[in-house]
Specification:
alpha/beta, Calcium-transporting ATPase, cytoplasmic domain N, 2 domains, seven-stranded mixed β-sheet, 14 strands, elongated, binds adenosine-5'-diphosphate, binds magnesium ion, Heavy metal translocating P-type ATPase
């Protein structure tokens, strides 16, 4: 390929709001036939809101939110931010915490006075009351549990919204001949509900994937001789972005994701993915 023409392509990319790291990226883009989309912060806005609190026994909702928000102050996860914002809106003063520990893809914990408080997936607890599990199953959003010394006593539900541009952007990727997959550490029900809203079939949804395993989903598709583009925003997505034949990071996301990607999307929507792929094909058609 002619380097000059490719550079023109990368220049147009900048105008379209995509930052393409070098001309060779356009070549890689041309062969892509599969696109793996991270859910939270990529297909959805990632701006989660606290929607409901359920408690068991004599615990008050305020006490549950106070403890959860205190722990989550230490975490940068979007769920943590929604919980901390929820407490701030309710004008709750947060107690001091010690020994904060984060379990990526699962939750976080810390000590408040002499008790270990944990916030996150059911798997982090020794026991979760069945009434809380049933409550979680009925919620539309993502529900995390709050527990003291291993026993979950409350459930907080946060909700995310699908970007209003996502469905049309994914339709366009399909029109460009790409097969879309949805990838998330979130639960099956939440993942399927988002997939349905954007028209991704349930068979192409990979849920409950631990952060350290996200890149394996990309590898598996590559072993099936697919040429894979990965789109993500989080620290969790960095290895998958690097593993993919083409990595695209949301400019609204984390620095680590942007560093691992070939293309950074400066507009907060998935249409930029179609722009980047359309642009590279157009550029290469001109010069070949
Ligand atoms: P995604 O792939 O959707 O970006 P993650 O892999 O970051 O999700 O997290 C997967 C799941 O782990 C979340 O849906 C949540 O249940 C739980 N989780 C992760 N971090 C936290 C946290 N800081 N607080 C509560 N729950 C968390
Ligand atoms: Mg994400």
């Amino acid at each position: 390929a002619t380097p000059t023409a490719l550079l023109v392509g990368t220049g147009r990319g900048a105008q379209l709001g995509t930052l393409i790291k070098g001309p060779q990226v356009l070549e890689d883009t041309r062969r892509v036939d599969t696109v793996v989309l991270d859910k939270t912060g990529t297909v959805t806005t990632g701006e989660l809101r606290l929607r409901s609190i359920a408690v068991r026994g004599r615990l008050s909702k305020k006490a549950a939110l106070t403890a959860a928000a205190a722990v989550e102050q230490g975490s940068e996860h979007p769920i943590a931010r929604a919980i901390v914002d929820g407490a701030a809106l309710a004008r709750i003063d947060l107690p001091r915490i010690r020994d904060f520990q984060s379990s990526p893809g699962e939750g976080a914990s810390a000590r408040i006075k002499d008790t270990e408080v944990t916030v996150g997936k059911a798997a982090l607890f020794e026991s979760v009351d069945p009434t809380l599990v049933e409550h979680a199953a009925r919620q539309a959003g993502t529900t995390v549990f709050v527990g003291w010394d291993g026993v979950a006593e409350a459930a907080l539900t946060v909700e995310d919204t699908v970007r209003d541009t996502s469905r049309a952007a994914i339709d366009r990727l399909r029109a460009l001949g790409l097969t879309p997959y949805l990838l998330t550490g979130d639960s099956a029900s939440n993942a399927r509900s988002v997939a349905e809203q954007v028209g991704i079939p349930a068979s192409n949804v990979r849920y409950d994937v631990m952060p350290a395993d996200k890149h394996r989903v990309v590898t598996e598709l590559q072993q099936q001789h697919k040429v894979v583009a990965m789109v993500g925003d989080g620290v969790n997505d960095a290895a998958a972005l690097a593993q993919a034949d083409l990595g695209l990071a949301m400019g609204s996301g984390t620095d680590v994701a942007m560093d691992s990607a070939d293309i950074v999307l400066m507009r907060p929507d998935l249409d930029a993915v179609g722009d980047a792929i359309g642009l590279s094909r157009e550029t290469l058609r001109v010069i070949k």
